[in-house]
Automatic annotation (TrEMBL):
Domain Enoyl reductase (ER) per the UniProt entry, residue ranges: 15-332
SMART domains: PKS_ER (SM00829)
UniProt KW keywords: Oxidoreductase
Keyword Repeat: no
Classification of source organism: Bacteria, Pseudomonadati, Pseudomonadota, Gammaproteobacteria, Moraxellales
UniProt-recorded name of the protein: Enoyl reductase (ER) domain-containing protein
Disordered, as annotated region: 1-28
UniProt feature, compositional bias: Polar residues: 13-28
Coiled-coil region(s): none
Length: 337
């Protein structure tokens, strides 16, 4: 049983020294457990936070722990009535070949699902995050302008496409021309701007002639700087993630802009609300799955995956994702079904 463990805590950008690949025996399930074999593994930005010692909404990993994460796995042995050998499930098995589970928090996938890995992306945690953050906190109204960065990733792509269906003007932000072209041509964003462009703020302003009503916050940093002056009165900001800051070891250089931010909150009467998807909205997951399942099936919502082959490739794929070298939902294929 290959396992990738946290070997040391990163200081800034994570490196391969922070991970260790070890091998152990395949675990044996007890009378109330099942044995799962990992097929696909999800890589998500939040994992960077768990590698650090600081406590966030969840406890950090300890040194020597198997890296955590969502997985699609196959049941290979089962002592639980609800799960049969051969079933495909979404579990939290982490970065390893085999794990045992008591079935808690494990979701059985439809046998006929053509792409089980979607259970880690558009039909899983990231898709659910985009859907709930936009609809519940964003409070979208037809004709309003929405801005979302990491627009081709699983969260941003969902936000943009749901926004389109709700009649919003959708402005995506992504890294590079190829991602921006995909956002417009495939995902249907009205426009997409490259955050690496020198005149990013100017381009964003031109893309939002009526200001911004919803800024779905995925990245922070330069994108937030560009957005702030464009926010309309009563704009809403679902604070979903701040990926540009996840490797930061200190506050950014430059003038303290906290006062300016508070000024915008006051003068524009902004609603800014952070959320952690399953903590706030767990009960809504079945209803989300039904709606999004139909939309994906009918082609109303499209998705792109960035599939990397082999468990051992996970650390590099994880670094790449944090740097934006992924194009679509990052998934590691660990084994064949
Ligand atoms: P992605 O697969 O989109 O990967 C992250 C992307 O962030 C990169 O591909 C890159 O896209 C972009 N990025 C990285 N650095 C920067 C930067 N400096 N400036 C601008 N963009 C940058 O991620 P997800 O869709 O899985 O997640 C998106 C966000 O949602 C993350 O912040 C994540 O932490 C958050 N999240 C929050 C949850 C919650 O419960 N609150 C649950 C799930 C996700 P590009 O090349 O286009 O810039």
């Amino acid at each position: 049983n290959r396992q990738i463990k946290l070997a040391s805590r990163p200081n800034g950008v994570p490196t391969s020294d922070n991970f260790e690949l070890t091998t152990s025996d395949i675990p044996t399930p007890n009378d109330n457990q099942m044995l799962l074999r990992t097929v696909y593994m999800s890589l998500d930005p939040y994992m960077r936070g768990r590698m650090s010692a600081s406590k966030s909404y969840a406890d950090p990993l300890e040194i020597g722990d198997v890296m955590l994460g969502g997985t699609v796995a196959q049941v290979v042995e089962s002592n639980i009535d609800k799960f049969a050998v051969g079933d495909l499930v979404v579990s939290n098995s982490g970065w390893q070949d085999y794990s045992v589970s008591d079935g808690e928090g494990v979701l059985k996938l439809d046998k006929n699902m053509s792409n089980p890995s979607y259970g880690l992306g558009v039909l899983g945690m990231p898709g659910f995050t985009g859907y709930m953050g936009l609809t519940d906190i964003g409070k979208p109204k037809k004709g309003e302008t929405l801005v979302v960065a990491a627009a081709t990733g699983p969260v941003g792509a969902t936000v943009g496409q749901v926004g389109n269906h709700l009649g919003l003007r959708t402005v995506g932000v992504a890294g590079g021309a190829e991602k921006c072209a995909y956002a417009v041509e495939e995902l249907g964003f009205d426009i997409c701007i490259d955050h690496k462009a020198d005149d990013f703020a100017e381009q964003l302003k031109n893309a939002c002639p009526d200001g911004i009503d919803i800024y779905y916050e995925n990245v922070g940093g330069k994108v937030l700087d560009g957005v702030l002056p464009l926010l309309n009165a009563h704009a809403r900001i679902p604070v979903c993630g701040l990926v540009s800051q996840y490797n930061a070891t200190d506050l950014p250089d430059g003038k303290d802009r906290l006062g300016m931010l508070m000024g915008h909150i006051l003068s524009q009467r902004l609603t800014i609300k952070g959320f952690i998807i399953f903590e706030e909205y767990g009960d809504h997951f079945p209803e989300f799955l039904k709606i999004m399942g139909e939309w994906v099936e009918s082609g109303k919502v499209k998705t792109k995956e960035h599939i990397v082959d082999g468990l051992a490739q996970a650390p590099q794929a994880f670094f790449d994702m944090l740097e934006g070298k992924n194009f679509g939902k990052t998934v590691v294929k660990v084994a064949d079904v």
